[in-house]
Amino acid sequence: xxxxxxxLKGKNLYGSQDLSIRPLTNLTKKSIxxxxxxxxxxxxxxxxxxxxxxxxxxxxxxGAKSITFVEKSEKSLAVLQRxxxxxxxxxxxxxxxxxxxxxxxxxxxxxxxxxxxDPPFNFPEIQALLDAIFSNKIxxxxxxxxxxxxxxxxxxxxxxxxxxxxxxxxxxxxxxxIAWKESYV
Length: 185
Known about the structure:
Layout: H1 26-36, E1 44-48, H2 54-61, E2 66-71, H3 74-84, E3 94-98, H4 101-107, E4 112-117, H5 126-135, E5 139-150, E6 162-170, E7 173-180
Parallel strand pairs: 1-2, 1-4, 2-3, 4-5
Antiparallel strand pairs: 5-7, 6-7
Helix pairs in contact: 4-5
């Protein structure tokens, strides 16, 4: 696993020894960042279910101004902290929050320009999490959320608050690009 673009391009990242972290494949990650073009430049990013931090660190390498990582697994946090220790000097804008993603989004008063979310494929509360993000305005008005999820765990598209702008299929997973409905109507 490595960083694919930006100032840290080619930097190898640590993964979990016991495969408890399901890493985002390089092909999927490249496709996501190619689709975002340079949207992440100088943006605040929230990386939910951050695992090793690969998703958020890719955004940081490509020019995001700050990344907040939210992860509850002790094993994943250890890997994440190890990967962040590889980042030269700019670590002040990398913040780790140990906790549950749904609880964080239900209680946080902070908004982000880009939300990257890679929950476990069997995560049963994906819709509740999306509802918390939009009801608590965790995503800025002109922001984008990217969700990597299993096809069998779909996202409701017919809501008053948000819309799925596009989806891309990779094997048994989908990448869903989501935004506030009023921003992209």
